[in-house]
Amino acid sequence: MENIFCGYYDEEAEQDVPLQPNISEAITFFKDFIWENKNSESAMKILFFQALGGNEASLQISCLEKKLWCISTSVSIRRRFLGPFFKRSTFKIFIDKNEDETENIIRLFYDSSPHEFAAFLKNSKG
């Protein structure tokens, strides 16, 4: 995918986020991201990647348990000949993924076209 932007939500601290990371920067940022909250009342931290263009895709990562991540993904693909407002959306949530599995999903997000990533989401088990 192209035009991938990165952001995060962390109410406790500023984290150095690359605005438009390449795949290696995205993997490094995921691994170096500070997932633990200092205050038990703080909101859950979220790391997200968004691919913009005619077809859109997003990937949100949060840590529910230490070293286990929840990954929420979606792809919206514009239907040919129907204009920009008619899109087919595919959505998938992956729960309790370890670091290697999460890294593989990030790699697929970067290396796949929106159509390939949508097919992966349709055929995978959460």
Outline the fold blueprint.
Elements: E1 4-9, H1 23-32, E2 46-51, E3 56-65, E4 68-78, E5 87-97, H2 99-111, H3 114-123
Helix pairs in contact: 1-2
Write a concise keyword list for the protein shown above.
126 residues, alpha+beta, five-stranded antiparallel sheet
Q: Which of globular, elongated, flat, extended, rod-shaped describes the shape?
A: globular
SSE pattern:
EHEEEEHH
Which class do the helix and strand fractions yield?
alpha+beta
| Helical stretch tally | 3
Mean pLDDT: 90
Helicity range of the residues?
A: 25-40%
Largest sheet, spatial ordering of strands: 1-2-3-4-5
Quaternary state of the chains: single chain
In short:
With 126 residues, this protein is an alpha+beta fold. The protein has three helices and five strands, in the order βαββββαα.
Give an account of the 3D structure.
- The protein has 126 residues and is an alpha+beta fold.
- It is 26% helix and 35% strand.
- It is built from three helices and five strands, in the order E-H-E-E-E-E-H-H.
- Strand 4 (68-78) and strand 5 form a beta hairpin.
- Helix 1 (23-32) packs antiparallel against helix 2.
- The longest helix is centred in the C-terminal third of the chain and has 13 residues, at 99-111.
- The radius of gyration is 15 Å and the shape is globular.
- The mean pLDDT is 90.
